[in-house]
Design goal:
The protein has one domain (30-205). The protein is built from two helices and 13 strands, in the order αββββββββββαβββ. It has helices at 8-26, 160-168; strands at 31-32, 43-44, 57-65, 84-89, 91-98, 107-120, 125-129, 134-142, 145-148, 153-157, 173-182, 191-197, 201-205. Strands 2, 3, 5, 6, 7, 8, 9, 11 and 12 form a nine-stranded antiparallel sheet that branches.
Length: 206
């Protein structure tokens, strides 16, 4: 029987080991880094009056946030390569005012048809965008306030290093949110709608 060259078996073993390590890193579960952009609880003030039949209002807000004290990349497993950031966002509460008849409104749906979250400092600007519309049902809590049924959307950004560089270096950061909200409920015609975002979480995906 022919004896394998002494260097072949170690080389094969190393190849198998590296392949196994790569598979393990690729299988890493997402790692949460909390809400570094402070999206959770952000109030989006009314900027217009709801009109009949899916004509939306645009809600905008901006705020300044500090850099993270620790770069999340420094705490990742050795060899792990972040592929994307997934940011969850949701509508949590809505407040109605204006000329609509609140006594006739007990529940309604609002559709988040567009949402951008911008993150910038003096060195760079990145934008997370909602990939598809999300509809949320709201139920009256009294006095023109409505509470959302649980539902969330995920905004994705695949240039992780750019986001992390903004969040960990340079000047203070500006987070800006722009959302377009529509409804097919004509009882909302004449309503001014203010919404508050629910809890948010940012995950590093591998």
């Amino acid at each position: 029987m022919r004896t394998p060259h002494p260097l072949i078996l170690p080389a094969v073993a190393l190849s198998v080991l590296l392949s196994s390590c790569g598979q393990l890193l690729a299988a890493l579960p997402p790692i949460s880094i909390g809400d570094p952009m402070h999206i959770g609880g952000m109030a989006l003030p009314k900027t217009g009056t709801m009109l009949p039949m899916t004509v939306g209002t645009t809600h905008q807000q901006a705020m300044t946030v500090k850099d993270l004290p620790v770069d999340p990349r420094s705490q990742l497993p050795a060899g792990a390569v972040p592929r994307a950031l997934h940011v969850t966002a949701s509508l949590d509460r809505a407040a109605l005012s204006g000329t609509c008849d609140l006594n006739r409104i007990s529940r309604f749906n609002l559709t988040l048809t567009h949402m951008d979250v911008g993150l910038s400092d003096t060195n760079d600007h990145v934008t997370f965008s909602l990939p598809a519309p999300v509809t949320t049902q709201f139920v009256s809590a009294g006095n023109g306030t409505f509470v959302a049924e649980p539902n969330s959307a995920t905004l994705v950004f695949d240039q992780v290093d750019r986001v992390m560089n903004v969040l960990t270096s340079g000047s203070d950061n500006t987070v800006s949110t722009s959302a377009t909200i529509t409804s097919e409920n004509d009882l909302l015609a004449g309503c001014d709608v203010s919404v508050t975002l629910g809890a948010s979480d940012t995950k590093i995906k591998f």
